[in-house]
Amino acid sequence: MKKVLIIEDDKHICELVDIHLRDIHCQATKVHTGAEGLFHALNRSFDLIILDIMLPDMDGIEICRRLRADSQTTAIMILTSRSEEMDKIIGLEIGADDYLTKPFSIRELIARIKAIFRRIDIHEHTFKTSNEIIHHQEISLDPQKRKAVVRGIKIELTPKEFDLLYLLASTPGRSFTREALLHLVWGNEFSGYEHTVNSHINRLRGKIEPDLSRPKYILTTWGVGYRFNDEL
């Protein structure tokens, strides 16, 4: 049974989502403030967090940011009544796995939740069946522990940053378009958000490259996208 944390100040929405989560064999914990939600998320284990942006005491974006800064890998779906493009982009770039704009249909919500769970299962299967620890000069990536070491120092990566780096590093020399990386790391639902890939690449370079002005590991394939250096 999947465990879901719902952080939503609207109790009616909480109850409605809870009822339909039970239909897909999920057990929900419902909280109505950001502080309580953050406490549960940091101290308990969940498969998914459904997170409202507009909370009375704490912005959902800030909660998401804190969880990712704490290296929490739990999948996060953001619920927002805002329709501005920038809110969605910010959510994806700080580590949310999906978003849904209010008002939403329960059918769409459940379909997206199922899609998230499928991606989680695929990732878990991939990393359980692949024990290969990748080494590229000063970089070491352990898919089992989701641990990245650069120049002898462990670096903190968000779940999407690790997946993106592992994908590139496991296929050195292969050029991926931004669209392909978005599909492979984020899923089909995010078509059109290729700029999110650029932001993650820039952050990864900031964490692993010794000289940002001359990237050594993650290279740009002009007119195509990105590749991991195969000439190290």
Could you explain the architecture of this structure?
There is one protein chain. This protein has helices spanning 11-23, 34-43, 60-69, 85-93, 106-129, 159-169, 178-186, 194-208; strands spanning 2-7, 26-31, 48-52, 75-80, 98-101, 134-136, 139-142, 147-150, 153-155, 176-177, 218-221, 225-228. The protein has 232 residues and is an alpha/beta fold. It is elongated and about 55 Å long.
Features:
Rossmann fold, 5-stranded parallel β-sheet, 232 residues, single chain, Arc Repressor Mutant, subunit A, 44% helix, alpha/beta
Concise summary:
This protein has 232 residues and is α/β, with parallel strands linked by helices. Helices cover 44% and strands 22% of the residues.
Topology:
Elements: E1 2-7, H1 11-23, E2 26-31, H2 34-43, E3 48-52, H3 60-69, E4 75-80, H4 85-93, E5 98-101, H5 106-129, E6 134-136, E7 139-142, E8 147-150, E9 153-155, H6 159-169, E10 176-177, H7 178-186, H8 194-208, E11 218-221, E12 225-228
Parallel strand pairs: 1-2, 1-3, 3-4, 4-5
Antiparallel strand pairs: 6-7, 7-8, 8-9, 10-12, 11-12
Helix pairs in contact: 2-3, 6-8, 7-8
